[in-house]
Each structure stands twice: as structure tokens, then as C-alpha cells.
């Protein structure tokens, strides 16, 4: 079974014909490690689904400090959603931490697909709900948990991330220095 179909069918069932229609709205792209799929200032017209690889979504503050908003690994969706939906310049960058195999759908194709196939409208509605839940959990964790608790939660939820992502990026995601992360992991 195609990995995208398997992913979609975790939430909605598709016939073979329906999946063929869905897949026809996507394009596949391969990116090398350190290539950007979104740069700050871009107008983003693609939402990406990760077949293989790992990416990071980040921004740099006025002091040049990197802040990681999200990692994207297999079966995850990633883009600058504000730019994608509102057609504004991107405030973030997304780059490949590994060689990546991605599927993407343009904003227009996504709108067309959801208009013609209510199952996909339900799929993206459910994915949005789960995304909001994940974002709420992340914000609450940043606000109420200690650095050690945030580290342990990340390790518990995504143990493979620690084998794939440099420690300095884990630190930027957790909002701590590299030195603090070293103390937390010992």
C-alpha cells in the first residue's frame, strides 16, 4: 500500500479510485540535506508530507538565536501554515536535516481536492484538530514544565529524534542552551 494512503486511512477510508484522485493532486520531490523547502520571506504555496527524512522549521530572533518550532519526520506534515493559508511572506524557514523524499500539494490543489472529495475535507479537518492539540501541548509544556521535564517528555514521545537530530537543535527546540541540554541528558 502506498505510504500516503496508509497515512490517510488512519483517519478516513478511501477506495482505490479515490486514492488515485488524491495522489494525482500531489507531486513528489527529493531534497538533499541542508536544502531549504521554505525560506523566510517566501510566499509558500506547498504543504509537504514527509515520506522519508527529517526537517526542521525555525526562525531566528533579532539577536540571531535560532528557535526550532517543529521537526518533521516520516508521516508528518510541514509548511509555514500562515503563509500557505493567508498568502503572506513566510516568517520561518524549513530545511532538510537529512536527505528527504517528500510529497507536496499546492494550496490550489488542496482546495480543489477538498471541494470535490468530502473524505479529504474530513481528513484535513481531523489533522488540523490533532495539530492544534499538539501545539497546545507544546505551548503548555514551555510555560509550565522545567527544562528537565520538557527534555524527558520529548525523549519519551520521540526517542528516535535524539538519534537523528544534533543536540544543538534539540536544545533550540527545548529553549535551552547546549550546555544545559548536556546537563539534562546526563
TrEMBL record:
Keywords: Kinase, Transferase
MF-aspect GO terms: kinase activity
Pfam families for the chain: cNMP_binding
Domain Cyclic nucleotide-binding: 30-114
Domain of life, source organism: Bacteria
Keyword Kinase annotated: yes
Keyword Aminoacyl-tRNA synthetase: no
This protein's name: cAMP-binding domain of CRP or a regulatory subunit of cAMP-dependent protein kinases
Organism of provenance: Flagellimonas pacifica
